[in-house]
Amino acid sequence: MSTSQHSRFAPDRGLTGRMVTTMFLIGLVYVGFTGLLIVLLRGAWPLIVLISGGLFVAQFWFSDKITERAMGAHEVTPEQYPQLHGAVDRLCALADMPKPRVAVADNDMPNAFATGRKPEKSVVCVTTGLLRRLGPEELEGVLAHELSHVAHRDVAVMTVAGFLGVLAGAITRMALYGGFVGSNRNSNDSNAAIAALIVPLVAMVVYAISFLLTRLLSRYRELAADRAAAQLTGRPSALASALTKVSGQIAAIPTRDLRQAQPYNAFYFAPALSAREAAGRLFSTHPTLERRLEQLEKISTELGR
């Protein structure tokens, strides 16, 4: 989970430690949840193992394609977007890392995201709204931010960590509505009733733990990406300008469009939140704009010395 050996993005031990801890804790909770289901639903344990394992592998293997399609991204060529590809080429050469696929999403909301299980299979996407609103240096700052996610491999960790909580809920629904609870002939009605009560409660706890752990990791990884991008480009002010501009413009996007984008906030450069929603940050996927700008200002001072 560390930065690629060939990347010049500054390694971040704090990020690596948090990724390892998050994956360990969520994995531990998930294994315990699966074990509980096997104990309670003895007659259906082969199906539970098969479904949980199959869905997990499929999500990890096809996470980039799933995310791209959900966010309306399509791969573009250098002939279609020469300036965008040129910026990615320069940054990849500067970071000494493999060039990811480049995609664009036809969306007026100014934003960007990166996804992929490893640098060689990653994709960096920007929206048409972002391309229209940012200058060349601001765009490079945003792209460097997204490339740092790829180099540090935290995109894959977020994808897996977030999926485990969703998977726990999916298995629970299948167990309850698929008739597995109480289907064992050796179990009596009271055991079935207990299983029907315990399984949803445990699933909610698993989801809550996964939710909180991924939110804590998500906020830190955004600060880490800002820091790595500013240090790589040497222009923290350009990234700060992009952050300010993007955050202000997103607040003006219609609420309906923001709600459609909110399920993918953990992947975005800036969260799809209205001005009112931005006030409540307890469970936010991103640190506050003020916190991010404060860090960039500090880096700017350090580079000036």
UniProtKB/TrEMBL annotation:
> Where does the protein end up?
Cell membrane
Major location category of this protein: membrane
User: What residues form the catalytic site here?
Assistant: E146
Cofactor(s) named in the record: Zn(2+)
> Could you give the cofactor binding note from the entry?
Binds 1 zinc ion per subunit.
Per the database record, which ranges form the Peptidase M48 domain? 80-299
Q: Which domain of life is it from?
A: Bacteria
What EC number(s) are associated with this protein in UniProt? 3.4.24.-
Q: Which residues cross the membrane?
A: 20-38, 44-62, 155-180, 192-213
Q: Which residues bind Zn(2+)?
A: H145, H149, E222
Q: Which Gene Ontology terms cover its molecular function?
A: metallopeptidase activity
**Membrane topology field:** Multi-pass membrane protein
Enzyme class, first EC level, given as a word: hydrolase
| NCBIfam families with a match to the protein in the record | PRK02391.1
PANTHER family assigned to the protein according to its UniProt record, in alphabetical order: PROTEASE HTPX (PTHR43221), PROTEASE HTPX HOMOLOG (PTHR43221:SF2)
Q: What is the name of this protein? A: Protease HtpX homolog
